[in-house]
Design brief:
single chain; five-stranded parallel sheet
Amino acid sequence: MPILSLPRFLTIAAAVAAAAFIGMSLLPHDPYIRYQTMQGTIFERATWMYERLHFDPAPADIVLVGSSRTARGIDPGALEAALAAKDLPLKVVNLSLAASGYDLQLTLAREALATREVKLLVVSLVEQFPRDGHQAFADLGRPSEIVAAPWLVNRNFVHNLARLPIRQLQLALKSWGPEAFGLRPDFDPEAYRLAAFDPRFAPLTEAVPKKTEEEIAALEAESDFRHRDLTLPVLPESLSWVEFGMTQSYIKQLAALAEAEGAELVFLYLPFYKGYERPFEQPWLERFGPVLAADFLMSDPDNYGGDVAHASRQGTALLTAWLAGELAPILEAAP
């Protein structure tokens, strides 16, 4: 048998490795299993989100995608009631998860618009565009989305891509025998009914006390820290497409998706306590849709819960009623 030369051996090895990488990355799996892998993490509500879109026949007229600020700040049931009082009987679905990253927001928006006739897509904002993607995107993104992610100034791209074959192999195994991994092979209506309850919006049994001086002082200190800790743009505005290129790319894709599916696109900005009245990128964003800024929240410490970024029950009630008033004319003017 002739001995392979080193260059030929390396070429064959690279071809085998590439074939194995591609083959494992293309392994099929049940998307329902993919969303169940978030159980036991801060992203476990992703399972309910998939079930709401794929197994619950109720409409999803208004869909919100965003971070924990929106997950905590917008009560879907209260928003539905406020809109119904304005003769807009629409169903609201909040697909917001902890942490920021528009790669995952695009994934969730795609799930929603592929399964429902969405009238209004509400995309949440923080003070400044994140420079990185969402930490759960590598787990929840479709293989095609992970491969097609923008690579420019994307520190997660190589890691997510390298992890994809193993992820697909694990998902394929779990799809073949989900019970062995503690996952459900089929939709369970009773489990879904129980998971639909969101304790963040449970009815109050007693009045919420006003914040003490010590609690207000803690919020003040945290707000000051957030101002100092925020990394302002390093590059000039003309190069924002480099520094914030990944987020800009996903915002453009969200806008194109909404337009293609006939949904109105609105941005929702929820500031932290004594933060910034407007998101830094508002002028750039307004080419795609209106920016609704809830700046009225930021002056009252009682509008915030245990930290400066997330609304209290009082803040949620005010925010939800305000948002209904802001959305009503947009919905009435929509085709």
